[in-house]
Amino acid sequence: MGFLDTLLGRAKADLDRLYALPEAAAIVRSATGYAPTGVGSVCFATPEDADPGRLCRELQDMLDATPDAPTMTLTEDVRGYTWLLAHHAPDDFPELVDNLHAMSAVLQNGGFATRLLCTMVAFRNPAARPLALVYLYKCGTFYPFAPLPNERRNNHLEFQVRAELADTLPIETDLTRWFPLWSAPDL
Predict the structure, then answer these.
(1) What φ, ψ does residue 9 adopt, rounded to 5°?
(2) Smallest Cα–Cα separation from 144: which of 126, 160, 168, 167?
(3) pLDDT tens, position by position, 37-71
(4) Do 50 and 153 touch, CB atoms closer than 8 A?
(5) Angle at Cα 115 formed by Cα 111 and Cα 120, nearest 5°?
(6) How many CB atoms lie within 10 A of CB 129?
(7) Residue 142: C-alpha distances to residues 21, 61, 72, 170 (Å)
(8) Could you name the domain of life of the organism this protein comes from (predicted)?
(9) What is the DSSP string of 17-77?
(10) Exposed / middle / buried, residue 1 (Cβ in 10 Å: 0-12, 13-18, 19+)
(11) Distance separating alpha carbons of residues 168 and 174, to the nearest angstrom
(12) What does residue 101 show for φ and ψ, rounded to 5 degrees?
């Protein structure tokens, strides 16, 4: 695929970048005290004519054909985007990442490559404040998202995490692409 394909969103996402998340999670934990919750999700734009229940069953059938298939939950946010959630024990983060990779690959290979928006993994600190690392499929980059009540963001924490992960993950440099995921489930 060429530059134009990437620009127009026709290129397949580099899903293997997700495998850097376990190392990034260890860095986030040691630098900030935020630990993985065991929840991760894949977000995509659902075709208008799609039946979400049927789509979920088809995806689960495809995933069941893979080893160690995740059990997933399908939900739609207030903006109409579909989220596939995977739940694991918080200390089983590498398995969560494997399942997010598998879910993304199934969607990508099943004709949803241009509809994939992001993958998100959730973290919490001892005070139960949320943090997420978000992977943008079309850009192949990550960014931190630290929501606060009333649709505000903890920019200080986001920039701290960005600095800590600069040598581990490809961090999105365009801050306008650090989309607030206010309606993300389980965050």
Answers:
(1) 80, 20
(2) 160
(3) 999 999 999 877 766 666 667 777 766 776 666 66
(4) no
(5) 115
(6) 16
(7) 10, 29, 23, 6
(8) Bacteria
(9) GGGGHHHHHHHHHHHH--EEEEEEEEEEEPPTT--HHHHHHHHHHHHHTSTTPPPEEEEE-
(10) exposed
(11) 18
(12) -60, -45
Residues in the chain predicted with pLDDT less than 70, given as ranges, are 1-12, 50-56, 62-63, 66-71
**Structure-token match 């992977």, residue found:** 135
Q: Is 12 helix (H, G, I), strand (E, B) or coil?
A: coil
Task: Kindly give, in sequence order, each residue whose CB lies less than 8 Å from that of residue 183, ignoring residues fewer than 6 positions away.
Answer: 77, 78, 79, 81
DSSP 97-121: HHHHHHHHHHHIIIIIGGGEEEEEE
Which helix (DSSP H) or strand (DSSP E) does residue 122 occupy?
Answer: strand 116-124
Residue with structure tokens 């894949």? 42
Distances (CA, A) of 183 to 30, 78, 180: 28, 7, 9
User: H-type helices in 112-181, by residue range?
Assistant: 155-165
